[in-house]
Amino acid sequence: MGTKNRQVLLAERPKGMPDDSTFKFVETEVPEPKDGEVLVRALYLSVDPYMRGRMSAAKSYVEPFEVGKALIGGVVGKVVKSNDPNFIEGDYVTGMLKWADYTAAKGKHLQKIDPDVAPITTALYVTGMPGLTAYFGLLDIGKPQAGETVVVSGAAGAVGMVVGQIAKLKGCRVVGIAGSDEKIAYLKNELGFDEVINYKTTKNIREDLKAACPKGIDVYFDNVGGEITDAVLSLLNFHARVALCGQIAHYNDTEIEKGPRVLPYLLTRSVLLKGFIVSNYDDQAEEGVKQLAEWLREGKIKYKETIYEGLENAPNAFLGLFRGDNLGKMLVKIADDK
Ligand code: NAP
Hints:
By secondary structure, this protein is an alpha/beta fold. It has two domains: 4-125 and 304-333, Medium-chain alcohol dehydrogenases, catalytic domain (Quinone Oxidoreductase, Chain A, domain 1, Alpha-Beta Complex), CATH 3.90.180.10; 129-279, 3-Layer(aba) Sandwich (Rossmann fold), CATH 3.40.50.
């Protein structure tokens, strides 16, 4: 165990796109776990778009990060010292921990993971928060039926990739929207998406969507918002369902954009549009994890990870989410699992 603990703090609240001035690196002593606490050596850190919301002071479903304090995110790590009888040295755990080499956390806030069941990083992805988001948003709100057409934006990202695969398992035609040809090739050739549109190179996204969805759109899983969503909403079928999951195209906006007025489309087609936060489903999470783990084991859900090396690259990995640098889940490897 090292004696120094690097941490990444929120240096200031960003206006618009965060940059280097948003983050501050400090080095402290490795904390000593108190009674009931466990000292965790971080191995992998998850960077997630929702963290942008927590960097601002605006009221939301979760408290803002505090300026001058360590950022917090999903971590998979190894117990190096335990003052909680439920954990022993060497246990693999996951929890919401500091962007740091080490965190002393209450045992009750950690979950054990079994490295023999699946690679440990899947606890931050398919069987973790992004997988559950895809699972509940698509199945509970989208309610896809065999033969229907499901469109997913942000299709090559962590959530989108799982959404598309679950929709295929349910017998749907799946059309993705993503930002590079490499992503499109992966979704079509490896994951079996029926069509994928490159929103960065298309001349007319609405026309391309129309061609890709000859029977219209029954379910839209929205990860991004903006003009992509404007186009999709104009092509919805009667009784379509929209799972409003994310709006990454707007997370760095400094002003509220005025877009097309979409409510008439929703009204005249009796559309259900529902925003949701994955934690709405906390009481059913166990069922979701079980099903996702089974699909993973059976090879019915495949996954990709983009892994940046070193805590020093965590800010860059986070900013990479807004550049579209990731195929699948964006992770940061903090330490070797020795
Ligand atoms: P992700 O999709 O793995 O990463 C973000 C992706 O968004 C990027 O790879 C990029 O791909 C795309 N993107 C970035 N800026 C964009 C823009 N202006 N327009 C269109 N696409 C853009 O992230 P994730 O973790 O899976 O999250 C996806 C969405 O779900 C996010 O909006 C997130 O906030 C939301 N989410 C919601 C919940 C919930 O509980 N409701 C939970 C988890 C995530 P391209 O190359 O395709 O541009």
